[in-house]
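Deliverable D2.4 — example input (structure tokens):
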């Protein structure tokens, strides 16, 4: 029987490309996204590729809806092999000026969203005696970046969540993995890059950070390249806990492991052109 992969946030971007790669490989794809138009066009695309799929329009914050979706997936396929938590939003700005109500929304989507989808499907996998839980995180889940404090906090939380879950579910034959890209050449960052207002003491440095980030994105890993590496993690019977999809994340994580913090900080500030 073909494997069954659940993906959240699959209407656009890397999630969509991963879904298509899975369908081309013969996997059954189930998932949801709040982008109704994206879900409809993805249905048409997966129909052309062939294979079975079960897609739904839903918000990751709808926790009762997630449980209903789980029941629909299990009723339709009888099993679930892999769950990829791919929903996430960015958050940019000097921490002093952050709107904490908006920050709470970011944490709700990025952290509790992942927790909700994993918690819903763990019983199904535990009873089967196997399965994979995979979370999209980020380089900033291990290497904090300035002006991304809330986003960084959400990705640090994902790291801790998955690494803690690992100890609990491995005795039931389940595997967990984290995927940690740095820049990918999408519009993700551009949507959140907003200069602090005139008069902000952070405006000039934040502007330099944005310019540098945009420069890096232009030469970053493409969504297709990233999707193919994510696909390999999903297909692996025994994925590594930490997985990178681009040179930048691998390089910075290597430095993070071997260099003294003072030197790491200097490299980061120079790299992002925000040294005072």
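Example output (designed residues):
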């Amino acid at each position: 029987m073909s494997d069954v992969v659940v993906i959240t946030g699959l209407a656009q971007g890397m999630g969509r490309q991963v879904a298509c790669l899975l369908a081309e490989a013969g996997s059954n794809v189930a998932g949801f996204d709040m982008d109704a138009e994206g879900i409809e066009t993805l249905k048409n695309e997966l129909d052309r590729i062939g294979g079975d799929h079960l897609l739904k329009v839903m918000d990751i914050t709808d926790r009762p809806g997630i449980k209903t979706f789980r029941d629909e997936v299990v009723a339709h396929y009888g099993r679930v092999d892999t769950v990829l938590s791919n929903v996430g939003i960015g958050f940019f700005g000097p921490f002093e000026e952050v709107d904490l109500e908006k920050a709470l929304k970011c944490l709700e989507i990025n952290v509790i969203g992942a927790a909700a989808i994993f918690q819903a499907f763990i019983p199904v996998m535990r009873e089967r005696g196997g399965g994979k839980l995979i979370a999209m995180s980020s380089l900033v889940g291990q290497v904090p970046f300035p002006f991304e404090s809330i986003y960084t906090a959400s990705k640090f939380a994902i790291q801790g969540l998955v690494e803690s879950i690992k100890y609990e579910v491995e005795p039931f034959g389940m595997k967990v993995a984290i995927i940690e890209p740095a820049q990918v050449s999408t519009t993700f960052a551009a949507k959140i890059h907003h200069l602090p207002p005139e008069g902000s003491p952070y405006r000039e440095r934040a502007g330099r950070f944005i310019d540098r980030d945009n420069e890096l994105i232009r030469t970053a890993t493409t969504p297709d390249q990233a999707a193919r590496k994510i696909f390999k993690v999903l297909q692996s019977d025994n994925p590594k806990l930490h997985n990178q999809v681009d040179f930048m994340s691998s390089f910075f994580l290597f430095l993070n492991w071997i260099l003294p913090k003072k030197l790491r900080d200097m490299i980061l500030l120079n790299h992002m052109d925000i040294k005072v």
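The mean pLDDT is 92.
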